[in-house]
Amino acid sequence: MTSVLPPRTAAAVPAAFTDRHIGIGPDAQARMLEVVGYDSVEALVETAVPASIHVQPRATSSIPPAATEAEALAELRELATANRSARPLIGLGYYDTFTPSVIARNVLENPSWYTAYTPYQPEISQGRLEALINFQTMVTDLTGLATANASMLDESTAVVEGMLVARRASKAKTDVFLVDVDALPQTKALLHHRAAAVGIRIEETSFAGDLPEAFGAFVQYPGATGRVWDFSAVAEAVHAAGGLVVAAADLLALTLLRSPGALGADVAVGTTQRFGVPLGFGGPHAGYMAVRAGLERQLPGRLVGVSQDAVGAPAYRLSLQTREQHIRREKATSNICTAQVLLAVIAAMYAVYHGPDGLRAIATRVAQKADALASALRSYDLTLASDAFFDTVRVHVPGRAHDVVDRARERGYQLLWVDDVTVGVSVDETTTDADIAAVLDAFGLSNVELGEGEALRGVDGALHRDDEYLTHPVFHAHRSETAMMRYLKSLADRDYALDRGMIPLGSCTMKLNAATEMAAVSWPEFSRVHPFAPEADVHGYLEMIDQLERWLAEVTGYDAVSLQPNAGSQGELAGLLAIRGYHLANGDIERTVCLIPSSAHGTNAASAILAGMKVVVVACDEAGNVDLGDLRAKIAQHADALSALMITYPSTHGVYEHDVLEITQAVHDAGGQVYVDGANLNALLGFARFGDLGGDVSHLNLHKTFAIPHGGGGPGVGPVAAKAHLAPYLPSHPFSQRADHAGGTFDGGPVSAAPHGSAGILPISWAYVRMMGAEGLRQATAAAVLSANYIAVRLREHYPVLYAGEGGLVAHECILDLRPLKEQTGVTVDDVAKRLIDYGFHAPTMSFPVAGTLMVEPTESEDLAELDRFVDAMIAIKREALAVAAGEWPADDNPLVNAPHTAETVVVGKWGHPYSRETAVYPVRSLIRGKYWPPVRRIDQAYGDRNLVCSCPPPEAFA
């Protein structure tokens, strides 16, 4: 029997990484092929994938032969050492920080946290939901506003989202948005780029004198220059004109300064990076957004709230599900459908670990160090840009700025060159007196006697904070490391993550996140690097990024790749903005229509709206394919206005469309561009390429196909890949260390705050590709397709498989139709999902892309025993549903409608159900020794929306 999968390596020889990553070996594969009805995996995949798009393995490849784990780590170590070790004092929203070891070991490096999925199944996500409500409470307390969401992608994109909130909520009849001239430069660049696409006019201002009419104003607090100022009068003036005020505020500074809410801000945004989250050359970091009362329903992103379960006990869940903007499709006001959960958890736990007194002490030391530096500089008659500052000092050194920065770099410090006259120095919690002395030496001031410094010496006393914050007991209860460790462990134990078992989520690809891939993320040579560090100090990072860009370009069939987008949604937006830029450059300003199939991911439509396009929906046929007739009709109808088609391949329905080349050619013939959504690349990698399908641009999900963990709902990386004619319009950045990429020069505006996005987790995907090699990537695709078809065949007689392609085959996922089950038995898709928890599983994707269905994706990482365990659970649940239909159990009191069952359910009080305790919690005997116990019963979703509580409830609520 031939196979695309190699035989397992002999036990005496270290196994190849591919053997570790792919869960099914030759024996299991043979059994699965027998069930599916194919002689080989190669034959299976080549039948499923249309012959017209097959690509053969390349004779030569930019991807080197697969490395062992030891070899990959050695190469990463070489790249790491090519990054020059330096102390970053650049600032501009990025600061070195100490990640408490107890948090680093028990969160950042703990698979119980980093392999978890988005908490759509809240009953098995109570730990990370509590951590996120801690985050929201921390943000609302410090910003002085009513409600915060569960994190944003970064500060600059959060500012853009704040601008969009202001536009929606404002009563002013104008498209003008005022932007602080002292805003962070990367934020201003992003604002200009994003505003242009949606018809907003940006006017930069110092806020002196009369203000023009505007729907909103953005202020930086403290400013990029370090200046701390009272913007309350500006807020009054903007409000009087019907506008809203968005303030970007430094959370550490807010432990000493009056809150944005107290100064009149309607929306506060920023980053939580300096709360223990490593720099990572720009990310991933958790941005934040908080709003005043009355704007809760305008919040983008995710919002965690308190509800109650089936017995009235308090329980956490995602509130106001309309926050999930992709559900609203073309009516969306934001394309944010993710968060930075893992990083938000770190930031929240940093606040839990330090408490308000600890944070205030850290901020005081930072402000004292900055004042000591400023006092020494003044004593030598050097002029400062502002005397009112928190941590940033701008120094005027006419004609000497380059010399000062160079002298500092020779001493191991990175300062900010502002212009020929000005140098910026930003201190942080890691800064010592020795560091200050070295910086002074770079200014030519040797042997200066430093004073202690006075925090906020030059700041008006009215701006000093005098109210309490972080008063909830959670910020006071875990002072010892023992207590903190146990708290983190208790939260992790409440959750179901990939370290417990399979998470068979269609469209989400919860595959193995190997320990070797994760190792380099914590190395200081990667984790403590400022995103605006000079090129000479980041050669290792740039080389790794260049290699990864080349590898991704090769496997997708494109010419250029930008790694800047820090989420799949942002990659979509970057690709569409590139198409927009291309049409504008060609004078085709009327091309604004984006065709999107009805089956597409909801973020497609949301991203198109934010790229300034008009969405036109294309119908799908009964098989789930794009309706060619409707497509041609829509192209003819909008021929002169056609900008792009967005299509997912394989389709969102989990099948390979045979007419894809005809589809893309029709769009090109009409002058449009083709955007191929890369969400399902893991069903194609090594067998076909987006660029060969007629794609002009795609985004990729490194947190899916290329093994970056989901982290409970973030981080992610969503690179954008394009053909050469679109490459000039890919994202650029004002602080990029290089203008030229392997695919050309990128001149489009930025889509994230950092030049290379969430670069700190790129070593994960680099290691994955390096250890798999081109052949290993192909084998992973084959294994994923085999596993999905095995599940589809075994379950087909119990649950109809909604869509299939050639030979009745699916791609890497299959959609199980539970609507007939509901009609026959009354059991809903929710009942099945919750009952799966009792069987020890996370449910598949519910009701997407079709309501009343489950989309199942096993991935290549699961072994046959786990696949069979899942199949057996689904078959057993079908039997239970039939028992309800047969009247063995009442429709309103059976194991399905009462699922999930907690330990308390079966041990406390009288058992009054018509089924046994054993049936409730041990439906199969294998659970007895390894049972996962959900901490709460089924959660009442509607109650939480009717009674919106989005901050930590009092401890007595859980008594």
Provide the spatial order of strands within the biggest beta sheet: 2-8-7-6-5-3-4
Q: What is the highest CATH level, the class of the domain at 524-771?
A: Alpha Beta
Main sheet attributes: strand count, strand direction, barrel closure: 7 strands, mixed
Radius of gyration: 28 Å
Helical run tally: 28
The appropriate CATH architecture of the domain at 524-771 is 3-Layer(aba) Sandwich
SS class? alpha/beta
- What percentage of the residues does DSSP assign to strands (E)? 5-15%
Shape: globular
Q: Helical percent range?
A: 25-40%
Distance from N terminus to C terminus (CA atoms, Å) equals 61 Å
CATH topology of the domain at 524-771: Aspartate Aminotransferase, domain 2
- Round the mean pLDDT to the nearest integer and report it: 94
- CATH homologous superfamily designation of the domain at 524-771: Type I PLP-dependent aspartate aminotransferase-like (Major domain)
Number of E-state strands: 28
